[in-house]
Amino acid sequence: MKRCIKCLIEKEIISFREKRNSCKECEKEYSKIYNKTDKAKASQIKFNKSDKRKEIDRKYTNSINWKTKRRAYRLSEEWIASELKYRNTDKWKESVRIACANRRAAQRTTSDWTITITTVTLLLNQQWGVCAMCWIDITNREDRHLDHIYPLSKWGKHTLNNIQWLCCTCNLVKSDKILINT
User: Fold this and answer.
1) How many Å apart are CA 79 and CA 77, to the nearest integer?
2) Which residue has better confidence, 106 or 62?
3) Any residues with CB less than 8 A from the CB of 104 and at least 6 apart, and which?
4) pLDDT (average), residues 106-112
């Protein structure tokens, strides 16, 4: 015998679901009530969409799925205009300034101060003047990047053992991933 916590009646253990303290009958009643209120909330939310959101949904509903719908919207002129409008605000500029400051702080706190212009040029000579990922010659290129093997965002250090020369495309593809050649 077990007592239901909702109706407070003692019933057979068979009338309870495994690891539950309320009987099957009480759970059925509760689910009926919950589903009715949930549907009402869902219908309210559904009809409270803003006019702009409705217009965007109508415009891009010809897309196959939500990913392509979102991609189509992001390539549209109205999204680009709204994004440019946002990027010219003080809020955007402040967030970029804070991100740059955090990056500089991470470099300062994890550096062992051995990275200088001479050590970086020596590193380029040790790599035979080629990109560490695609082996393209980068000695005479202006778009070469100094990359952290273990990114600073993933608690890598700003030391000579953790940097490498990459071409621009490889560095942008690598982003903040940890890629180690085996």
Assistant:
1) 5
2) 106
3) none
4) 78
Q: In angstroms, rounded to a whole number, what is the distance separating the alpha carbons of residues 163 and 140?
A: 19
Overall pTM > 0.90:
no
Go through the chain and tell me how many residues it has.
182
Say if residue 148's pLDDT is above 60: yes
Which residue in 138, 144, 146 sits closest to 162, CA to CA? 146
Domain ranges of the chain: 2-47, 51-109, 113-174
DSSP string, the chain: -EE-TTT--EE-GGGB-TT-SSBHHHHHHHHHHHHHHHHHHHHHHHHT--HHHHHHHHHTTTSSSHHHHHHHHHHSHHHHHHHHHHHTSHHHHHHHHHHHHHHHHHHHHH--S---HHHHHHHHHHTTTB-TTT--B-TT-S-EEEEESS-GGGT---SGGGEEEEEHHHHHHHTT------
Report pLDDT digits (tens) over 27-44: 877 777 666 665 555 444
The residues, ordered by sequence, that sit 6+ positions from 79 with a Cβ below 8 Å of its Cβ are 73
Q: Under 8 Å CB-to-CB from 63, ≥6 apart: which residues?
A: 69, 71, 72
Q: What contacts 44, CB < 8 A, 6 or more positions away?
A: none
